[in-house]
Amino acid sequence: MANSIAARVADFMGKHPPFDLLPQAELLALASEVTIAYHPKNERIFSENQAPKDHFFMVHKGAIALKRPSTQNLVDLCDEGDVFGLRPLMAQEQYKLDAVAHEESILYAIPIAVFKPMAVAHKEVGDFLIESFASNTRNPYSRQHRGKLYGESSSTPPGPSETKLFDFQPVPYSKKIVCCESGTPVQEIALKMTEKKVGAMLIVDKGLPVGIITDIDLRDKVVSGKFPITASASEIMRSPVITYPKQLTVTQAQMALMKSGINYLCLTQDGSPNSPAVGMVSEHDVMLAVGNNPAVLMKGIKRARKTKHLKPIRNGIQQLLADYLELNLPMRLTTKIISELNDACTKQVLQIALSRMDTPPPVPFAWLSLGSQGRSEQLLRTDQDNALVYADVPDTEAEATKTYYTELARKVTKRLHKIGYDYCPAEMMASNPNWCHSVSDWKTKVTEWVSSPGPDEVLLSAIFFDFNLSYGDEKLVNALSDHVFDTVAKYPVFLTHLASGALKNPSPTGFFRSFLVEQNGTHKDQFDLKRRALLPLTDAARVLSLSHRIKSINSTEERFEKLAELEPNNAQLYRSCSYATKALLKFRVKQGLLHNDSGRFIALDSLSKEEKIKLKRTFKTIKDLQDLLGIRYNASNRI
Amino acid sequence: MSLRHWFKKDNTEYPEFWQHYAAGFGTKPTMAISDAEFVVFDTETTGFSFDKDRILSIGALKLQNGQIRVQQVLEVYLTQHHFDSESVPIHGLLHNGKKEQISEKEALKSFLEFIGNAVLVAHHAAFDMGMINTALAREGLPKLKNRVVDTSVLYRRTLLQSPLLLKQEQYSLDEIAQKFDISVKDRHTALGDAFITAMAFLKCIDRLKCTQLKELFKSGINGF
């Protein structure tokens, strides 16, 4: 019996190969046999050497990591629409990899008994599978060969230490070929290239590639005046075209690009210029495949026109972070680069969201990152904390303006969620009307918090005062920070409250210098790195820099450096605070990458002795800093 | 024999399908969530009054150990005598529309057969339970015997305990779907809503780290 869930499953499956090759009726029959399975993050779906199940999987939502159990290296990350775990069933052998839910995922388990006869009956489906097994790609026809295959190849996975082998992957290429006939005027070609946002145009004759025109040709031959803009394509094109078969590895593509001195390659059906073109490879595609280079990632972000294009880039950033830590690069450099990239992602998300609004923004606005992102300390993907501020409008338009910006913020937070930033559990997001105000409303709010600080106000301002401009009008943000400093100067008692708030953080060690672990809850017996070690530092840095009116330095580590300059007699303490912040941050990121979480809680028995000593050393610094705060602000931590 | 017994019908007076259904409740239910069988369901109705309004359709699916078998679902449309044209635009179910329709009694029979002694899950369960129980009463049958979990209650429990977060009294299925990034393509069909509810239910359990059935009933509603 076909029901509406089966129809929905069939809809989804039919959009992805090889199921798009099945007739509708059979697809529906197959869909009715599917089991929909939910897997929480980090749950195992199958393990190495396990006997094959009677079904294979398709990712509906989320992502599945295929890992080599011996090294825990990531071999492939299966995304929405990808199929995995099929080859062992076809070959009737054991699984060769571990499959673990990388994110909370929903999978379709498709019974092999129903699918196999269909694959046999429909030659195209069978061909697809054979080709994908043979070429070791998950989807030989797709535009992006994101990873390696159905997950069971024996090829060596990419990893920080084995990056070279990564190069033997098939090269990703773009299937959308922009082409025209050889008689087309050059001007028309330039217009079309602009419209399609491409850097090269293929010139075809009867469907076969005969030449190529790139941006460089236009510059060298047309703009320089050698040819008029009315010249035909055949006059300026480079011919013959350098063609390759589509089974080209990244390394081969790199070599080919270097050899030919051109930044585009044409892929044809059989690799010769005598068969129709199937795709184009640009230097950019190759760079992106080779990898984790900040410049390339940045370019990728800027080029993203859809949110889903950003997601793989975000994964690339994560990989880059892992590589940097592996290389033991200075933490300051690492945080700088990664924050820049994260920031660029947010900016791009805003641009995408803005382009999806019906009308342009009515007045100037600014998107603020709060909390760790505002301090440029967000290395791992954690919660999103943000706010929106817009220029004042007359009362008559107040409501419409607010509606517009909350709607915009809703679009942005939804997209940020899509690329991996969780929603803030306390709803501190611009999509919440309480965090989306005009400048004057924000000023009133700030005055309220500062003039009558209760525990809630202190907490709110602790989060809000680390705001940083992500996108939009800088003047609005400056007006707001000036107001914060002026108000704080007017009500000095606020600093005392903020300081006592900072001292309220529980201390990291007990009486005998042993670690204090959580007593109950999900993280029982784990050490809360954020609350017990990082938070005291960031909170103290905030109070001290507010009192010194240190503007536009938000990162905790840099705040301490600045404080060391301003207070020479405490310089040594502040320097060690700056060092401790960096060390703890690195600790957290390493833990987070290891466990694919926020890195906040640490199981102490998983640490080496050396690591424990390193951690403890920072605690002494925290203690000294808290003493300084206590004396300066006369605040007591017994409230 | 007490007066109470005199009023209460003997089980044997009910139709066979009810007896079969009631017989399923003799054994003690399993305790672990991973073993328990859940039936997630939703009803589309002509309105919000238990007495005046009628069920237009029932959608239900079985959920066990985080898995839903696409084949094991129930999707029935009921013949309408009473008809309130106002609710049609919401649900898109037209009076005597194209879908095959069955009588209320037949629908209840299939529903009881489908749910057996499983734990029921619904969003704002009080409403759906009320609609089904009223319909059962019309057919001269007692109320449902199953234990019930309400996802709207469960969802509230997943939220942060913080003075900064004002919890709403009610969370609609749309709000929860948005928070959990669940596609709302089939919203306002009984089976589509049941599927969204099932996903929300699974995500709530994961966030609450529940493993035992009794934890679900802690502050959820249990029966009527």
Q: For the record, what is the CATH homologous superfamily label of chain B?
A: Ribonuclease H-like superfamily/Ribonuclease H
User: What is the CATH level 1 assignment of chain B?
Assistant: Alpha Beta
What is the level-2 CATH architecture name of chain B? 2-Layer Sandwich
Report the strand count of chain B: 7
Q: List how many beta strands of chain A DSSP finds.
A: 20
Indicate the structural class of chain A: alpha+beta
Task: Sketch the topology of chain B as an H/E string, one letter per element.
Answer: HHEEEEHEHEHEHHHH
Envelope shape of chain B = globular
Straight-line distance between termini of chain B: 26 Å
Helical percent range of chain B? 25-40%
Q: What is the oligomeric state here?
A: heterodimer
- The number of domains of chain B is 1
Descriptive overview:
The complex is a heterodimer of chains A (639) and B (224). With 639 residues, chain A is an alpha+beta fold. Chain A folds into four domains: 163 residues, Jelly Rolls (Sandwich), CATH 2.60.120; 112 residues, CBS-domain (Roll), CATH 3.10.580.10; 147 residues, Beta Polymerase, domain 2 (2-Layer Sandwich); 137 residues. Chain A has 24 helices and 20 strands. In chain A, strands 1-8-3-6 form a four-stranded antiparallel beta sheet. In chain A, helix 13 runs antiparallel to helix 14 and helix 17 packs parallel to helix 19. The longest helix of chain A is centred in the middle third of the chain and has 25 residues. Chain A is globular. The termini of chain A are far apart. About 5% of the residues of chain A have low confidence. With 224 residues, chain B is of the alpha/beta class. Chain B has a single domain, classed as Ribonuclease H-like superfamily/Ribonuclease H (Nucleotidyltransferase, domain 5, 2-Layer Sandwich), CATH 3.30.420.10. In chain B, 37% of the residues lie in helices and 17% in strands. Chain B contains nine helices and seven strands, in the order ααββββαβαβαβαααα. A six-stranded mixed beta sheet of chain B has the order 5-4-2-1-6-7, sandwiched between helices. In chain B, helix 3 links the parallel strand 4 and strand 5. The C terminus of chain B is likely disordered. Chains A and B meet through helix 1, strand 1, helix 16 and helix 18 of A and strand 3 and helix 8 of B. Strand 1 of chain A pairs antiparallel with strand 3 of chain B, so a sheet runs across the interface. Chain A: Pfam families: CBS, cNMP_binding, DUF294, DUF294_C. Chain A: Keywords: CBS domain, Transferase. Chain A: This is Nucleotidyltransferase.
